Amino acid sequence: MKKILFVFLFSVLVVGAVFIIYVKSNPPLAISAYTSLKDNPTVKIIELENKGLQEIQLQQVLINDKIPEKIELVVSKSAPFEAEMEMENDPNITFYKLGQITIFPSEFIDRQAIGKQPQHYAVRMEAADMKMITIKYTYLKIPFTLKATLQTKK
Fold it and tell me: d(Cα 80, Cα 72) in Å, to the nearest integer?
């Protein structure tokens, strides 16, 4: 009986470890695009995509390893984010504090529900010289960090 219990507990631990290794090696958050606002190049819109199966909770965003002056999570119920886009007066775009809502998995977004359900997520931030962005988030209560270097046009 003790042998069966030991094998069962060992199996559960091995499966749990393999699951955590798999999730850590395949992070669910991806940057799908980024752009600057046409009238203000210090403001960047970084579009995020949740490629996982559960919701993502953003914890912190750093620019060049510093906390940005202003940062918001932007949710669009219509079109993807573009440089020429008018964000402030669009009824399909809402702004939230960073951890206020979760990012829904893109696999489960109903693309036919334009204007009714969130279609695209982005982070809008303001900083003078953006070279590197670090996004800290949780997925399945496991902490993750996404680091990306932003390309600048020359």
Answer: 16
The DSSP bridge partners found for residue 56 are 103, 139
Q: pLDDT tens digits, residue range 53-87?
A: 899 999 999 998 898 888 999 998 877 776 556 67
Taking only the tens place, the pLDDT of each residue in 34-49 is 887 777 777 888 999 9
What residues does 57 pair with on adjacent strands?
138
The secondary structure of residue 131, as a DSSP letter, is -
Identify whether the C-beta of residue 58 lies closer than 8 Å to the C-beta of residue 135.
Answer: yes
Contact 56, 141 (CB under 8 A): no
Bridge partners of 48, per DSSP, are 31, 121
* Global pTM value: 0.83
Edge-to-edge strand order for the sheet containing 56-63? Answer: 56-63, 132-139, 142-149
